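dude i think i finally got it to work??
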Amino acid sequence: MREVRADPMTGRRVLLCDERLPALRPRRADSATGDCAFCPDQEQDTRPTIAAIDGEHGWVARAFANRLPAVVLEAELQTRFRGPEEGRDAFGAHEVIVESRRHAPWLSGADTQAALQLARMRLGDLLRDERFEWVGWYRNRGTAAGASMVHPHAQVVALPFVPAEMEEGARRQRDWFAATHTPMLEAVIDSARHDGRLLFEEGGVVALCPWAPEGAFDVWLVPSAASARFEGSSDALLGATADAMSRVITAYRRILDGPPYNAWLVQGGRRTEAGERWHLRLRPAILNTGGFERGGFGAMHPVFPEEAARWLTTAL
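look at this
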């Protein structure tokens, strides 16, 4: 059973899918390649390939439908109400991107670039379906970060609504631009540059520690020029983003001993307006959350972004 439900107090939507219960999910070898469905020559163990980036020895990255999707195209676009509570069938698309042929927890820069190019391709294709209002990308690396397999992979999701946090972020960017005539993320970059939170700037991508990080050692990768949507990014920008991501993850490995981490795309819905830009966020999964965070009071952790920037800059 799959359903999307909304919290009547916050409006935040939750995807419920009982098929994704951990106890019922197929288990794969975590370290050996012999039983890994994501390795080359094991393609028959996944859904058919939808799209791929090919290299000299075969595919470099490939995309296919998630075997246990949280949302499905077969669902109906119907909303139901029970008083203030809202629910609807879990309509959408949910795909996996295998990001490398290599069965290893860390990606090369070339693999990262190919994987992001395939993500751009899939998001752009999904957005051609006018039933979808939002498309997103995320990567979980390591079991503590939510990954069920070691082999490098990411996921893309297309939904008929814009998630509440993404919608709020886009609204704030629009409001800031209307008031100042300056994109908010430009102001964010300037602020980070002013107080030492900017890690590096290369190829049109800025890596910085955000002013109010929700997790310890959070890093944002922000295009320095106008780029409203990830799927509209140039090859050069994706290449620079891949290089920046690889550098930050290498720094994580040096100072945090190869931690599990999450990465995700932040962008608004399909109808972008002046001032909106996308960016990527990275977060090591090194701290357990407690009642403060889960209770919705905000984030709480011990690492100031200025200190995180000093550590990361040294590692870089």
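The helical segments are 109-127, 164-180, 184-194, 235-256, 291-294, 305-315.
im so relieved honestly
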